[in-house]
Specification:
By secondary structure, the chain is of the alpha+beta class. The protein folds into two domains: 55-189, Helix Hairpins (Orthogonal Bundle), CATH 1.10.287; 210-374, OmpA-like domain (60s Ribosomal Protein L30, Chain: A), CATH 3.30.1330. Helices cover 74% and strands 7% of the residues. It has ten helices and four strands. The chain has helices at residues 2-8, 11-114, 119-209, 227-230, 240-257, 285-304, 307-312, 318-327, 348-351, 363-374, and strands at 223-226, 266-274, 328-332, 353-360. A four-stranded mixed sheet has the order 1-4-2-3. α2 runs antiparallel to α3 (119-209), α2 crosses α8 and α3 (119-209) runs antiparallel to α10. The longest helix has 104 residues, at 11-114.
Length: 375
């Protein structure tokens, strides 16, 4: 009635609706742009995550190697310190011995003036003592050289240790940055994964409000439409009662999937036809049922994609029709997904069905990324 009244009005009303249609087309382009932006952002986050993961592993390996080298350096420093302390002790003992020997030499020289008779013996002793002094001085010179070498090695190791500490600090800072980026990516992924749960909950609530008895799979969001209500056995034409069922079901279903809240996330709405394993004489069982399931899925899709049906029954605007056509698809599954009774036998009635499902944009890559991050 509104459309009739609208058509009876003047040119101003027609211009208004034409402008409204143009505005809605712009909105569709904006929605498409947002979707592609989200896809690009998600792929970029995925690449950044992989790069961060690789750099994290490299940094962790370097940090471990640096820690091992630092531990080895500490051990070498401890050994060098012990050697240095031992050499210093020996040096102090040698210096004390030199002092004692020099004192003894001076005493001998004083006695030499008083005991010329003992000169030869004292001279021999003096020569011996001189040799001992020279030997001790040579040892002192050698120990001093070794001490200088060890001091240089100690300073070199100390400088290397400081460099390793600085490098380890740098790696820790980089790891902190990577962990921050991973946390941001995790938050974005959790937000995307929460959309499916929200859609399933909204579908269940909408069906309850409209008193439509239908089960929504809590994990996948798939909905089973009873095949017996839609088609006669072996037929592909929709029954009148099947059309009435779709007339009640689809407007509620699409009001959720194509709403402004969820439309940007929906990648595909799939109509799937399923059959039981009953074969037709003279035909391959799977191929016969594949064709039958495809034609049934196509029959449902053709019914709902009628332009008048989309406008009047589904109450879709021009932009809604365009969005609906971009995401809807139909497929036949033959009897590849049969339903079974409790005793394991095939439930033919339950197997003959039509399922309507939806998938989200980049849903598989989002789940894969979350699993990688979780590990």
């Amino acid at each position: 009635m509104k459309r009739l009244r609208g058509s009876s009005q003047g040119g101003q009303s027609g211009s208004f609706w034409l402008s409204f249609s143009d505005m809605m087309s712009v909105l569709v382009l904006i929605f498409i742009f947002v979707i592609f932006s989200m896809m690009f952002t998600l792929n970029e986050q995925e690449q950044k995550y992989k790069l961060a993961q690789e750099q994290y592993l490299i940094a962790e390996a370097r940090a471990k190697a640096s820690q091992d080298e630092l531990d080895q350096t500490v051990i070498i420093l401890q050994d060098a310190q012990e050697q240095l302390e031992a050499i210093q002790g020996e040096l102090e003992e040698s210096q004390m011995l030199i002092i004692d020997l020099r004192s003894e030499k001076d005493a001998m020289r004083a006695d030499l003036a008083l005991a010329l008779a003992e000169r030869d013996a004292l001279q021999a002793n003096s020569d011996t003592l001189s040799q001992q002094i020279n030997a001790l001085q040579a040892q002192i010179s050698q120990k001093q050289t070794e001490l200088n070498r060890l001091s240089g090695q100690y300073n070199s190791l100390l400088s290397s240790s400081q460099q390793n500490d600085a490098l380890l600090t740098q790696y820790k800072n980089e790891l902190a940055l990577y962990e921050s980026r991973l946390s941001e990516a995790q938050a974005q992924l959790e937000q995307m994964l929460g959309v499916k749960t929200q859609i399933i909950r909204s579908l269940s609530d909408a069906f309850k409000r409209n008193n439509i008895q239908v089960d929504v799979d809590e994990e996948t969001g798939a909905i089973v439409l009873p095949g017996a209500a839609l088609f006669d056995s072996g037929k592909t034409e929709l029954k009148p009662e099947g059309m009435r069922y779709l007339d009640r079901f689809l407007p509620v279903y699409l009001s959720v999937l194509l709403s402004n809240e969820f439309r940007p996330y929906v990648a595909e709405i799939i109509i799937e036809g399923h059959t039981d394993s009953t074969a037709k004489q003279g035909y391959d069982a799977f191929l016969y049922n594949l064709e039958l399931s495809q034609e049934r899925a196509l029959a449902v899709a053709s019914y709902v994609l009628d332009d008048t049906y989309m406008r009047n029954t589904l109450r879709l605007s021009n932009s809604g029709i365009a969005a609906f056509k971009k995401v809807i698809s139909a497929a036949g599954r033959s009897f590849s997904s049969l339903k079974y009774n409790a005793d394991g036998s095939e439930n033919k009635e339950a197997s003959r069905r039509v399922e309507i499902k939806f998938s989200l944009i980049d849903e598989e890559s989002v789940y894969a990324t979350r699993q990688i991050m979780g590990s």
